């Protein structure tokens, strides 16, 4: 951009392939800057790399060049950007005509006439060229892509002579009545004589009062005010707004009490783009007019980006007004801000409903909150964007089970992959939905993402079955894409979905393992299919997966009691590669009945870290399981000397502490710390209250030092008693 600003075309040629697409603070690309400065050679070098990009108002480099009247730059860009339209539906041709650049308009007519729907007469009218218009009156009555005639285009661009010529030929076709014509000219007498035509609107929806206000004809405004006040054009503008926009302040003041009594000075300044006046009235920024619009909405609708920044500035983390509006589900504000700020990314990160977004967009923030209507609006502008780790809005909705948002996003974002912060894993939205058991989302995503794998070779089907989501697994098993990428046997598919007859017919494939090391028996147990597990038990019972897990562990982890009963005799007591048992899986999930079945065979066992089932139950806060396991496992310490009481204290489970305190109170870990010290370090106030009487005297200096370090006054008071 620095090279472009200084018109160093040789440097631009070197840098363009590497730095193209970057934007300045005011949302301009290097190509737009070249167009604005009239640097044709630099624009030619940049065009292949940055063509088609638009600024926050929808203007392309060609439009900017046309507005400036730079014939050479327009010539360099027209082949790259012809026919493109801004947010109002205008092409570069309209920009040139509006600015009165005849040579540029003539060049663009050859390229954009069809895109704009303009005839030569329309171009002449917009330019105010009555000679050219006279020669093309045969085109009268035709309308452009926005439904406007040459007469309306001439009037909108202030081409009085062209209006006088065309009103005789197109007045009726354009909806121009005698009253509208009189108001446009400011002929108060003629306007008074034509009041029988009051209330009629032309092709743009403008009334006689609006045209009088637009042109600054105060006498005509006074005559028309009582008859047409409050009417709106096709874009929602009133006569007051036309007067304000065109800086006819005396007329705006006259119309204010009739059409906009609830508009504050801040709103008026925001509409006209008066930055100094906005600064003077910032204290009114939260006020709303009778239509519910704030100054922010009015400024955004008018396209005044600098004023939007004054009213609701982008913060140090790059969070914009649009993002904040999306966060609070403010649809009206989002609608007006989107043309100005959509596509921007914050520089920091934010966690919403358990999903962390890194340098994300407004759409991602709305999707993470399940704000359906905001998502519907923003997907048109931000759909397909990914954060710095490849996460999309669709992924957050799939992970959280927001099926309505998934439906809105899947067309634009289906098929994308994300990586974690270390660059691996490559999750898809379908995998996230399957991992978390959201079958409605799985159904919506299957067509676009079925068969895609994560970097470890696992498909959504494998993730669904590993997490015990039977409904998702059933859906995925039926999808050809998922079956094609899986190394599962027919026996495994049958066991997974609970088809006992198919299991019986495929028993010859027993003892085969999938790529993630599971057997058909494990799949049956993991999904609670007892009939299938019974058929497979003889051939596959006792077989361990690649991680050392058994079918019994899978059944216990998902609380399938009947499967646990069936498998207990053959697989009870087996430990995984990490030393885990079925009892540990049941205890850490709080599955009391499964734990009761497994207690006799597996209690007292420790995993590779020295943890017991009791410790895992205490860490997760399941007092019923703690009560069950306490007699057999109370007092055991892990490899680091931790007890179940310490795990409960660390994680803030006072109900478990009450059960464990008598048996384990006063014990210390290998770092000479008690459960009380761990509760203090983690600011677990209720746990501190329970532990203090028993343990406050143990290594008191160390305890108080920890308390001082944490700085919790309530805890200090408890320990001082």
UniProtKB/TrEMBL annotation:
Keyword Iron-sulfur recorded: no
Alphabetized InterPro entries for the sequence: Ankyrin_rpt (IPR002110), Ankyrin_rpt-contain_sf (IPR036770)
Keyword tRNA-binding applies: no
Ranges of compositional bias, category Basic and acidic residues: 7-25
Keywords attached to this entry: ANK repeat
Top-rank taxon, per record: Eukaryota
Extent of the ANK repeats: 204-236, 516-548, 547-579, 578-601, 609-641, 640-672
Region annotation Disordered: where it falls in the sequence: 1-25
PANTHER family assigned to the protein according to its UniProt record, in alphabetical order: GH07239P (PTHR24120:SF4)
Protein name per Swiss-Prot or TrEMBL: Protein 21.1
Organism: Giardia intestinalis (strain P15) (Giardia lamblia)
């Amino acid at each position: 951009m620095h090279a472009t600003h200084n018109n160093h075309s040789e440097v631009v040629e070197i840098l363009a392939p590497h730095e193209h697409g970057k934007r300045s603070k005011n949302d301009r690309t290097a190509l737009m800057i070249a167009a604005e400065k009239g640097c044709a050679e630099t624009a030619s070098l940049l065009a292949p790399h940055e063509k088609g990009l638009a600024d926050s108002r929808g203007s392309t480099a060609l439009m900017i060049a046309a507005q400036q009247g730079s014939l050479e730059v327009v010539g360099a860009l027209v082949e790259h950007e012809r026919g493109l339209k801004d947010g109002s539906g205008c092409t570069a041709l309209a920009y040139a005509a509006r600015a009165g650049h005849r040579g540029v308009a003539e060049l663009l007519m050859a390229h954009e006439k069809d895109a704009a729907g303009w005839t030569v007469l329309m171009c002449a009218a917009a330019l105010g060229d009555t000679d050219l218009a006279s020669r093309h009156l045969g085109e009268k009555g035709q309308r452009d892509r926005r439904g406007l005639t040459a007469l309306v285009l001439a009037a909108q661009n202030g081409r009085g002579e062209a209006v006088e010529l065309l009103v005789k030929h197109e007045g009726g076709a354009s909806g121009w009545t005698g009253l509208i014509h009189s108001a446009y000219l400011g002929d108060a007498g003629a306007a008074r004589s034509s009041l029988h035509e009051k209330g009629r609107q032309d092709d743009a929806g403008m009334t006689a009062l609006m045209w009088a206000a637009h042109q600054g004809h105060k006498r005509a405004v006074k005559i028309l005010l009582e008859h047409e006040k409050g009417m709106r054009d096709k874009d929602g503008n009133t006569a007051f707004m036309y007067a304000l926009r065109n800086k006819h302040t005396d007329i705006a003041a006259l119309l204010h009490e009739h059409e906009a009594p609830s508009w504050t000075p801040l709103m008026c300044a925001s509409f006209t783009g008066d930055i100094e006046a906005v600064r003077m009235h910032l204290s009114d920024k939260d006020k709303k007019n009778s239509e519910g619009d704030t100054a922010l909405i009015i400024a955004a609708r008018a396209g005044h980006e600098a004023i939007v920044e004054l009213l609701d500035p982008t913060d140090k983390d790059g969070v914009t007004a649009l993002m904040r509006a999306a966060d609070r589900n403010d649809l009206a504000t989002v609608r007006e801000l989107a043309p100005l700020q959509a596509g921007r990314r914050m520089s920091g990160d934010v966690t919403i409903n358990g999903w962390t977004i890194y340098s994300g967009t407004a759409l991602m923030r709305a999707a993470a909150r399940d704000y359906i209507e905001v998502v519907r609006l923003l997907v048109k502008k931000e759909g397909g964007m990914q954060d710095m780790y490849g996460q999309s809005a669709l992924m957050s909705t799939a992970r959280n089970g927001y099926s309505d948002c998934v439906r809105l996003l899947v067309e634009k974002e289906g098929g994308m992959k994300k990586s974690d912060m270390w660059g691996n894993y490559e999750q898809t939205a379908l995998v996230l939905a399957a991992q978390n058991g959201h079958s409605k989302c799985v159904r919506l995503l299957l067509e676009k993402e079925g068969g895609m794998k994560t970097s470890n070779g696992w498909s959504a089907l494998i993730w669904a079955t590993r997490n015990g989501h039977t409904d998702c697994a059933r859906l995925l098993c039926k999808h050809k894409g998922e079956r094609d990428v899986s190394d599962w046997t027919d026996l495994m598919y049958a066991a997974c979905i609970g088809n006992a007859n198919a299991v019986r017919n495929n028993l010859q494939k027993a003892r085969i393992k999938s790529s993630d090391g599971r057997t058909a028996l494990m799949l049956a147990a993991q999904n609670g299919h007892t009939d299938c597990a019974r058929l497979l038990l003889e051939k596959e019972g006792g077989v361990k997966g690649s991680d050392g897990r058994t079918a019994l562990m899978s059944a216990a982890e998902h609380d399938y009691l009947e499967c646990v009963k069936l498998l207990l005799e053959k697989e009870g007591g087996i430990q995984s590669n990490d030393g885990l048992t079925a009892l540990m899986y049941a205890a850490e999930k709080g599955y009391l009945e499964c734990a009761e079945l497994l207690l006799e065979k597996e209690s007292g066992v420790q995993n590779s870290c020295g943890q017991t089932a009791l410790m895992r139950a205490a860490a997760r806060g399941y007092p019923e399981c703690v009560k069950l396991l306490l007699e057999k496992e109370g007092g055991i310490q892990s490899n680091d000397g931790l007890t179940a009481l310490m795990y409960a204290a660390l994680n803030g489970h006072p109900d478990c502490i009450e059960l464990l305190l008598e048996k384990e109170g006063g014990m210390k870990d290998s770092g000479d710390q008690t459960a009380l010290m761990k509760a203090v370090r983690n600011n677990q106030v209720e746990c501190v209250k329970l532990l203090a009487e028993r343990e406050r005297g143990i290594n008191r200096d160390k305890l108080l030092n920890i308390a001082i370090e944490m700085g919790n006054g309530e805890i200090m008071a408890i320990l001082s008693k």
